[in-house]
Write a structure and sequence with these properties.
Elements: H1 2-24, E1 32-36, E2 39-47, E3 50-55, E4 61-62, E5 73-74, E6 101-104, E7 115-120, E8 123-128, E9 134-136, E10 141-143, H2 153-157, E11 177-180, E12 187-192, E13 195-200, E14 205-208, E15 213-216
Antiparallel strand pairs: 1-2, 2-3, 4-5, 6-7, 7-8, 9-10, 11-12, 12-13, 14-15
Length: 222
Amino acid sequence: MLRFVCVAAAFVALCNGQASEDRDMICKSRNAFYSVDGNCDAYIECRDYRSKEMQCPDGLHFDPKASWPNYPCSYPMDVSCAGRGTPQKALPTAECPHQYGFFPSPRATPEDCGLYLMCVEGKAIEMSCPPGLAFNPSNARCDWPDAVPSCNADAFLGFKCPAPAILENGEVDETTINYEYIGNCYAFLSCEKGHARLLMCDAGYAFNKVTGRCEDADLVKC
């Protein structure tokens, strides 16, 4: 019986040693990262030609283009799983659908669509997009309000662009027209094809509602 246990233990050790050797054969470079087939979250890290299988945190994907020693895990909007396998099973919390990532805020409304959640280790942090931008759940980025279906862009910006003029040839006039942004003379609303975008003048400039351009702030009544 003791002999059988010893033989079995030796077999397991041999198999584990062989698996380690097989992984080490992947290490063509002294220090590097390599993908794991069929899994877009797992990867092999090679250090001094010795390999170790690693796993990105839930909500992050392994980036095959990552160079050692940079952190090799990135957000899904930056690194897609397409054609590389499936992501790991989600580990949701009461606050977050994944341990890491950017997600819609429960406080967001069609009229206030710049709010979102940043999840870190399953903890949600309330965030807000820069002024004039709305959170887009489809790409987890801050986007133009008119590109976010759940956002009421006119109500969110407090401004509606006039309907574009129709030219003599029947085509829509695509000329960009700028309008003042009430309450901030360093910002302005730019209408592009009927869609309003809140923009800012460069430092040292202010928006001149007469000319419809950003000009030297010293020359603009603000």
